[in-house]
Structure to design on (456 residues):
């Protein structure tokens, strides 16, 4: 897994606030949304092996020259060729990709056009974890950032729907509200643009569609995008919105319900969140009658941090699955009795658990959910997960200072099931509705609490 992200969300913060009143569409991790995120956005994630990303500085190669572009292109192609987890490249003829895209890269008229070519080539793998970033696009996985207009999109009831609007943002000022439908961008119907993106991928997957919806407003910072939307009453409006950089912290939120149940929302699995969870658990979770764990915006994170939190709910030594590379090297991830980060003893809990998932739940979050359900420790409510479960060992620095993430590790559950390309299906399907967005109503959390009352 890699970091959150972009839905990508992969493997690798924190305040206490009310989750009960938070809409189901809490601000998605970049990776899931505008970096995927799932550019994964996305979702979406850093090396769960604990290996730090490379930080080698640029050697001074410039993509302003043909020679420089070819040097960077060849480095990207060769690194994927040498390190990718699947020697068959998911059915893609990788040698042919070099033949097709290298001439385009050589003649690209700008750095932006050059990186667009690289992204098209890398995107042909339909892998949410393998991504390439221009020097100015790089970011710290633990402080996700992305270029956007101040609103989050996803597909709801067959339409591209606004699920979040940032307060005091340009969309807020022009009257766009959660629940509104995006009809067109620059005069082109939204679904036509989405289909164009999917047509550029030889083997598009469900996660590809999620990414395409999330990236509908993509573009360079300090540019604008013309948006046409339809509101609750069916009124059609048009406005031009500026793009700019947005950033958000990854966090964990706990809310105790009046009936003594708890709602725990985890944005991602990070060491900081795992440490915070251990500190909050005795006072806010240990004596709850049951816990709803909200993973709907969780794009993954650090596998060791995920194992740390899973250790509170599963016996020591529980097999969380196995990771392997293309050469057959592998390792298992297990729950433990003592914290890897503080060395304190981990308190084991047997409380009933309900897990909430969505198509943005990916990577380490999918492993967490799959294992807890397989051990009969939890039930899953919501929608199908991303099916994006691969892992990155190190971030590769390109000759011009750009970055490349490559999926080097595959994953299979303790039962031998591969989750990559195979989403987890919920025990109880709960679909989001536009009416819920307008009312700021979260029917999925309510369904989870109802099931807890029956189960416990």
């Amino acid at each position: 897994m890699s970091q959150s992200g972009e839905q990508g969300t992969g493997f690798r913060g924190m305040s206490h606030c009310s989750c009960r009143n938070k809409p189901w569409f809490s601000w998605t991790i970049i990776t899931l949304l505008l970096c995927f995120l799932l550019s994964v956005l996305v979702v979406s994630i850093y090396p769960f092996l604990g290996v730090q990303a490379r930080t080698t500085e640029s050697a001074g190669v410039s993509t302003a020259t043909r020679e420089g572009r070819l040097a960077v292109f060849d480095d990207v192609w060769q690194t994927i060729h040498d390190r990718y987890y699947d020697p068959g490249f998911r059915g893609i003829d990788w040698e042919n990709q070099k033949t097709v895209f290298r001439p385009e890269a050589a003649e690209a008229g700008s750095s932006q056009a050059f990186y667009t070519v690289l992204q098209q080539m890398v995107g042909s793998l339909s892998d949410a974890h393998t991504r390439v970033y221009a020097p100015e696009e790089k970011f710290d996985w633990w402080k996700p950032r992305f270029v956007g207009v101040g609103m989050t999109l996803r597909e709801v009831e067959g339409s591209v729907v606004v699920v979040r609007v940032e307060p005091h943002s340009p969309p807020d000022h022009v009257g766009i509200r959660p629940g509104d439908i995006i009809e067109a961008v620059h005069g082109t119907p939204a679904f036509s643009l989405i289909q164009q993106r999917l047509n550029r991928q030889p083997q598009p997957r469900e996660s590809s569609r999620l990414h395409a919806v999330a990236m509908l407003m993509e573009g360079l910072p300090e540019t604008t995008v013309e948006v046409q939307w339809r509101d609750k009453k069916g009124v059609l409006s048009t406005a031009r919105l500026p793009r700019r950089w947005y950033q958000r912290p990854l966090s964990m939120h706990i809310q105790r319900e009046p009936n003594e149940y708890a709602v725990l929302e985890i944005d991602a699995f990070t060491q900081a969140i795992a440490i915070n969870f251990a500190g909050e658990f005795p006072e806010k979770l240990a004596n709850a009658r049951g816990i709803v764990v909200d993973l709907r915006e969780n794009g993954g994170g650090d596998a060791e941090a995920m194992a740390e939190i899973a250790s509170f709910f599963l016996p020591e030594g529980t097999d969380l699955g196995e990771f392997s590379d293309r050469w057959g090297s592998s390792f298992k991830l297990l729950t433990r009795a003592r914290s890897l980060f503080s060395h304190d003893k981990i308190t084991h809990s047997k409380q009933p658990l309900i897990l909430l998932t969505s198509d943005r739940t990916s990577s380490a979050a999918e492993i967490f959910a799959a294992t807890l359900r397989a051990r009969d420790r939890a039930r899953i409510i919501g929608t199908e997960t991303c099916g994006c479960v691969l892992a990155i060992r190190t971030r590769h620095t390109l000759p011009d200072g750009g970055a490349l993430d490559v999926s080097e590790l595959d994953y299979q559950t303790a039962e031998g099931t591969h989750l990559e390309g195979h989403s987890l299906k919920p025990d109880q399907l709960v679909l989001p509705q536009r009416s819920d967005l307008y009312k700021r109503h979260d029917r999925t959390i309510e369904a989870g609490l109802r099931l807890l009352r029956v189960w416990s």
